[in-house]
């Protein structure tokens, strides 16, 4: 089974989600203990986490152009997910540049903790997009409003060009959507935040795809 281009982002996004919080923890330990070894560990983790976040961000921008987003709620949830991750990544870049030549500080560590909290929220949106709204799921029913456009295989000759082209198109899409929200021409969907008023999980089908194993079967032997 070939891996498609839009599947690159969910495959690599776990790296920054693990490395950046670990870097923050290392910095807190260094601040509390004054141990230079922990400060060095934190610095290296910040570099690795930020580089992985940048790569994951490019892959995510490309993925936004490789999926079908006819549902306004799903489309705006992708927008919030992308813009939120862009802010978090820029924050990680700033912390990393600051940490290259400086030891960790309590203020910097608290800022990093706040950025990681924001990343947790955007990651939650990513999960809701996939598992609740079906964004990027292949195959989906032909009449589904979310799914995938079936881009090129990841290891094909077309993939590098498509990655760059779709990433640039994803940047333009984010800015255009942000502008339309700012101008009020197309307000943000009330359910795009993933919670609160206007957000409702998709209804469950009347018949489950997999039978509930906790319910007794009619043909089960009686004791």
From TrEMBL:
Start and end residues of each DUF2231 domain: 6-138
Disordered as annotated region, ranges: 189-223
Transmembrane regions listed in the UniProt entry: 12-33, 45-65, 77-98
Protein known as: DUF2231 domain-containing protein
Coiled coil: none
Biased composition (Basic and acidic residues): 214-223
Pfam entry (one): DUF2231
Record's keyword terms, sorted: Membrane, Transmembrane, Transmembrane helix
């Amino acid at each position: 089974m070939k891996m498609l281009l839009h599947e690159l982002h969910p495959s690599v996004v776990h790296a920054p989600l693990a490395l950046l919080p670990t870097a923050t923890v290392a910095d807190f330990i260094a601040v509390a203990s004054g141990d230079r070894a922990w400060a060095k560990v934190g610095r290296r983790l910040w570099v690795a986490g930020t580089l992985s976040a940048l790569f994951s961000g490019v892959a995510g921008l490309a993925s936004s152009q490789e999926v079908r987003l006819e549902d306004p709620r799903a489309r705006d949830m992708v927008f919030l997910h992308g813009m939120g991750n862009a802010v978090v990544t820029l924050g990680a870049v700033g912390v990393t540049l600051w940490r290259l030549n400086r030891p960790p500080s309590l203020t910097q560590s608290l800022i990093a903790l706040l950025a990681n909290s924001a990343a947790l929220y955007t990651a939650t949106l990513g999960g809701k997009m996939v598992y609740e709204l079906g964004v990027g799921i292949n195959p989906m029913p032909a009449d589904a409003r979310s799914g995938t456009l079936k881009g090129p295989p990841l290891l094909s000759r077309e993939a590098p060009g498509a990655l760059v082209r779709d990433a640039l198109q994803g940047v333009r899409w984010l800015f255009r959507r942000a502008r339309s929200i700012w101008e009020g021409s197309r307000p943000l969907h009330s359910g795009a935040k993933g919670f609160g008023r206007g957000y409702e999980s998709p209804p469950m089908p009347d018949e489950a795809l997999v039978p509930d194993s906790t319910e007794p079967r009619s043909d089960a032997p009686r004791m």
